[in-house]
Amino acid sequence: MPRDIIILECTEARAEGKSPSRYVTTRNKKSLRTPGRLEKVKFNPALKRRTVHRELR
């Protein structure tokens, strides 16, 4: 299977003392466009706004 399952975690929630939101998605193993950690803007229900979510390793 050429795709990896990854977890995206909110980067701003821990700084504010709230539980971080997590999303599960897939990523192409051989992608040249995103060689580092994947970042996406997703909604965090604890903070009630859109925040940056970064890939966990």
SSE map:
Layout: E1 3-10, E2 22-28, E3 39-44, E4 49-55
Protein described:
The protein has 57 residues and is an all-beta fold. The protein has one domain: Rubrerythrin, domain 2 (Single Sheet). It contains no helices and four strands. Strand 3 and strand 4 form a beta hairpin. The radius of gyration is 12 Å and the shape is elongated. The model has no long low-confidence stretch (mean pLDDT 90).
Number of helices: 0
The CATH topology, please? Rubrerythrin, domain 2
Number of domains: 1
Cα Rg = 12 Å
Task: Supply the CATH architecture.
Answer: Single Sheet
Shape assignment = elongated
User: What is the H/E order?
Assistant: EEEE
User: Class by helix and strand content?
Assistant: mainly beta
Strand order of the largest sheet: 2-1-4-3
CATH class: Mainly Beta
Strand content: over 45%
From the N-terminal CA to the C-terminal CA, the straight-line distance is 19 Å
The share of residues in helices is: under 10%
Q: Biggest sheet: strands, sense, closure?
A: 4 strands, antiparallel
* Mean pLDDT value: 90
DSSP E strands, number: 4
Organism: Rubritalea squalenifaciens DSM 18772
Family: Belongs to the bacterial ribosomal protein bL33 family.
Protein name: Large ribosomal subunit protein bL33
GO molecular function, one term: structural constituent of ribosome
